[in-house]
Amino acid sequence: MKTDDLIRGLAADVRPTRGLGVGLALALAAGLAGALVLFALVLSPRHGMPALLAEPRILLKFAVTLSLAVAAGWTALRLVRPGSKAAGPARLLALPAALLALGVAAEMVVTPEADWMPGLVGHYAVYCVMLVPVMSAPVLGAVLLALRRGAPSRPALAGAVAGLMAGGLGAALYAFHCIDDSPLFMLTWYGIAIGIVTAAGAVIGRRVLAW
Predict the structure, then answer these.
(1) Which residue among 56, 104, 135, 202 is least crowded, i.e. fewest CB within 10 A of its CB?
(2) d(C-alpha 155, C-alpha 149), whole Å
(3) d(CA 71, CA 118)
(4) What is the pLDDT of residues 131-176, one digit of tens each?
């Protein structure tokens, strides 16, 4: 059987893919509800957070994490639809990377070199690496279950992208608590934490999303 015939066969398979967008939205709602419960049990909003949202470095944290989640979510949907091209949505992943790169560059321009390392190390790096995956776990579980309705040709990759989305949302939620605002901290420790969730998504997705 030719590859094109196989793809057409998958597209006509009994596993429904048309409702994937709605299913993913419902899964996100459920996963975020679970993550909010965890946040309430384990963490608390940073003191003065509403006013702090006007600070550029804090806005950057939310701009990077939320744009990452949106781009990864769109890419994941394409990856589980037979015959769909994921290259277009995947290019959007360059947006959060570019925003973070600009933030890091600006930080290194306006901050004395002696303050770079303290900003990178921060105060709660270990907590960041631990708690972002914890906040991401309900979202990742719900999203992977929703994406099972699709038929990804590369389940590990689809799972990894789902993990990237969950990691972005978990990091955005953790940012409401985090007092480490340096883009250097975000690049390092948020990056490691989101990488852990992405790797977990790849490992779990390889099994859960296989068909």
Answers:
(1) 56
(2) 12
(3) 31
(4) 999 999 999 999 999 988 877 888 999 999 999 999 999 999 999 9
